[in-house]
Amino acid sequence: MRLARRSLLATAAVLPIRRSRAQVRPVVRIGVMNDMSGPYRDVNGPTGVICAKQAVQEFAAGAFDVDVLSADHQNKPDVAVSLAREWFDQRGVDIIIDVAATSCALALASICREKNKVLIPTSTASSDITGKACTPNSIHWVFDTYMEAKSTGGAMVKAGGDTWYFITPNYAFGEAIQRDTTRFVEAGGGKVLGAQIYPFPETTDYSAFLVKAQASGAKILGICGAGADLINIVKQAHEFGLSRKMSLAALVAYTTDIRSIGIELAAGTRLSETYYWDLNERTRSFQKRIQPKVALWPNMAQAGDYSCTLHYLKTVADMGPAAAKADGAATVARMKAMPTDDDCFGPGRIREDGRKIHPVYLFEVKQPSESKGEWDLYKLLGTTPADEAFRPLSDNACPMVKA
């Protein structure tokens, strides 16, 4: 039976629409979730989002489009989980990065495994992310408490700082950095003379804690708080004259913190980072590209947002967007199989436990007379090679990996 002319025309009109729909480009969605309004705003916040977008801009994707979403979890695990469920179930998000607060990262690790999505904390500190809380859907970028404790704490004990007193926030991150630093202090023959736990994020006055620290007779004040907490503790330590009697160890610190404290007060403080804008030609190249877009120059966590986004997109291109979007655990496995390389961290790799490894640098904050500008903050004291900087697989910390 022959079709009428009107029917043929109608069929012909439909065909191009079907072809057009078949050619719609897939969209990969990256969610940057962090603290946009609280004590870690400068540590990650808007600059972290800008760094992720920079990676998208520089990545030449021919086969798919990329969207970057952002949200503030307010350092509350329940808010983080609620946002993640909305992103996964309603917005089509494929990966969450940044995160900050350890309590939020641990909660998100579970939901990402449940939904088979990808989680990459860049500003989360606790080494438990690749320890007892490791999952096949998670990678830990940039740094962790084990690394910071070994690099900063271990170095200060070797230099004679063999007695310590800690000031520590009362949540998972603070507990982890005090635990890991204590391990290296005691392994080096040192002693912990005491610790003061404070409520987070409610505490802003540390005077009573500083008086106890000074009375302990310890040589080193181990500051286990980060972001605004670290800034306030250091400033108040100087106001009380404690910094003349004790050396300050900033166990998790960033360039953004040191700039906020001011080089006059922070001078001589030792700390470890995995990225610094003036480290080499590649880091200076990245800083030159990102500088017109940011108010705060990127620290190591924010540089990590750029780095992990770039590696994730390379992996999606290698797998194909459909396969990557369908299986977060398979995407993480492919990310581990591919070497990493970018202008912020240079060559590196991702281990079986999800630990992204690269060199770690021990810095000392410059004296004001040595600094040539507000972001010229550090002088390099030493470098720990990538394979030595992080907790060894032989510790069997991650249940899914047996060394």
Summarize the SSE layout with pairings.
Blueprint: H1 5-22, E1 27-34, H2 45-58, E2 65-72, H3 77-91, E3 95-98, H4 102-115, E4 118-121, H5 145-158, E5 163-169, H6 172-187, E6 191-198, H7 207-216, E7 220-223, H8 228-239, E8 247-250, H9 255-261, H10 263-266, E9 270-273, H11 281-290, H12 300-319, H13 321-326, H14 328-337, E10 349-350, E11 356-357, E12 360-365, E13 378-384, H15 386-389
Parallel strand pairs: 1-2, 1-3, 3-4, 5-6, 5-7, 7-8
Antiparallel strand pairs: 9-12, 10-11, 12-13
Brief synopsis:
The chain is of the alpha/beta class and 403 residues long. Helix content is 43%, strand content 17%.
Q: Could you describe the 3D structure shown?
A:
- There is one protein chain.
- 43% of the residues lie in helices and 17% in strands.
- By secondary structure, the chain is of the alpha/beta class.
- It folds into 2 domains: 27-143 and 279-358, 3-Layer(aba) Sandwich (Rossmann fold), CATH 3.40.50; 146-275 and 360-386, Rossmann fold (3-Layer(aba) Sandwich).
- The chain has a 4-stranded parallel β-sheet with strand order 2-1-3-4, sandwiched between helices. The chain has a 4-stranded parallel β-sheet with strand order 6-5-7-8, with helices on both faces. A 3-stranded antiparallel β-sheet has the order 9-12-13.
- A hairpin with a 5-residue loop joins strand 10 (349-350) and strand 11 (356-357).
- 50% of the residues are buried.
- Mean pLDDT is 92; it is low at 1-21.
